[in-house]
Amino acid sequence: MCPVCRAMVQSAPQLNASVSIIIKFCSLSQAISLSGPPLLTALGFQVYCALEVNVEEHRGGGVGWLGFAILTLLILVGAWLYAGWKSSQRVFPQGVSIAGLSMAGMTREQALAMLSEAYAQPITVYYEERPILLVPEMVGLVLNVEATSANLDQVLLAQGGLQGFIEYALDTIWRRESPPQDVRPVLSYSRERIDAFLRRTAQQFDHPPLDPVPLPEADTFRPAQPGTTLDIDASLAPLIATLLSPTATEMRLVVELEPARAASMTVLRDALDAKLEDFTGIASLFVKNLDTGQELCYNCNIAFSGVSLLKIPVVLERYRQLDSAPDADTLALINATLTESDNASANMILQQIGAGNPYSGALQVTDFVRTMGLQSTFLAAPYDLKEGVPPPDFSTPGNSQTSYATEPDPYIQTTALEMGLLLEGLGQCSQGTGMLRMLFPREILPAECEAILTTMERNQVTALLKAGIPEGLRVAHKNGWTGQTHADVALVYSPNGRLVIAAFLYQPEWLVWEESAPLFSDLGRLSYRFFNGETE
């Protein structure tokens, strides 16, 4: 007989009645395995109570019946609580977890099975962004089922006895939540194997800083990479903690970075060699990052026909002469010279420079660039006005070399290096620094240099170097060509610094536009990506 029914029999005489109570529990073993209200019907708990009651009628009998009803209700509630308590002793209550995994409503066997499965799952260990699958067996991680089961039994045993019943009854009646309780699983692992795993990972992935590598087929470079070193000591504790957690699925190793070295310009030269391998003419290129000072001279001292690139110093000399902003007519000539490459407009500016004589103006431009130190650049006659003018006898460092024959125009010559330096001077001048500000502090102002660059941004030729630069970036450039020589010079405002690119291509007899234009685009793209990486 359960404690509740026993109490009912013992307390019956207090009702001043003759009470005979027979309580029969059917399928008691089944009932104890079940839990939750209503216990007597919904869960299959079969309780049969036969009460034979003989009550002698006497004064105060109504009170006896009321007391009997209350006692009967209390006994039923107690029986329900008792049965629920007995059933709950086989499963874990709410709030109980093991290493963070909830075991509420589970039997001990179910909890152990769940835990064993959790600790058998591999974890993903990341070295930087490289995933490494680590199976627990690799490091000897084993769940001690017997010891862990003993820890779980302590929780179940705590629910038994009178104290356990009282706690269960109060929690059920007052709808109290059980206090959280986390059970510790018992695990073992091999520290030696974990150390070996970390050492193998370091051997596989540690590397010194890597230089960029040309990828000619894609017109780009594999970017420079920082060196990486696995910090084994700092990674050990987080790795063990991840292994011991049944819920953790990944962790990141502690990797120290050594900054990438400045890219060697040899890498860019190798990429240019590969790109120009099939070009049968002569190529010249000067590239410089104005913010880092890195530069490359690729046949950059060879003399070429100056073509329309010399219109840049023509406009700059005109600004130098002006004491105030140019008037509307002069501004229109400057715009046509730089955006449309109009020869007539350039000659009219030369005429202004030469006080009415464009030939004198051309020689003044030559003197001007020589003052800047550009010894291989000169303009001996206005554009398209060479007839009757004897070829000048200008011997320069550029046209004195004999390694390359580019048939430069005897009236107008320059080199990729000097055009690049001129554009560098404009870019620095626009920010108030550089050689132009040093040489002509009162005659050439930053606002005038900026005005020239802004006008060059409106150049109507969008092919050549600009075609290889990502859209949306500021590019100030000037192009020019003859039948044999095509040229373009650009100042690119790139994310990793302002870039000056000056390029010339020469082909004997005739240089086909359909061949040169894509090649200029490739040269611009390679130069840009060398300093900025792949951006498209």
Number of strands: 22
Radius of gyration: 46 Å
| Widest sheet, order of strands | 16-15-22-21-20
Give the terminus-to-terminus CA distance: 84 Å
Query: Would you tell me the overall average pLDDT?
Result: 84
Beta-strand portion reads 15-25%
| Individual helix count | 18
The major sheet is characterized as: 5 strands, antiparallel
Give helix % range: 40-55%
Structural class: alpha+beta
Which term fits the overall shape? elongated
The stretches of 5 or more residues where confidence is low (pLDDT under 50) are 1-5, 11-60
Task: Kindly describe this structure.
The protein is an alpha+beta fold and 536 residues long. Helices cover 42% and strands 19% of the residues. The protein is built from 18 helices and 22 strands. The strands form 8 sheets. The chain has a 5-stranded antiparallel β-sheet with strand order 16-15-22-21-20, sandwiched between helices. It has a 3-stranded mixed β-sheet with strand order 4-3-8, covered by helices on one side. A 3-stranded mixed β-sheet has the order 6-5-13, covered by helices on one side. A hairpin with a 4-residue loop joins strand 10 (213-215) and strand 11 (220-222). The longest helix has 28 residues, at 61-88. The chain starts with a helix and ends with a helix. The model is unreliable at 1-5 and 11-60 (pLDDT under 50).
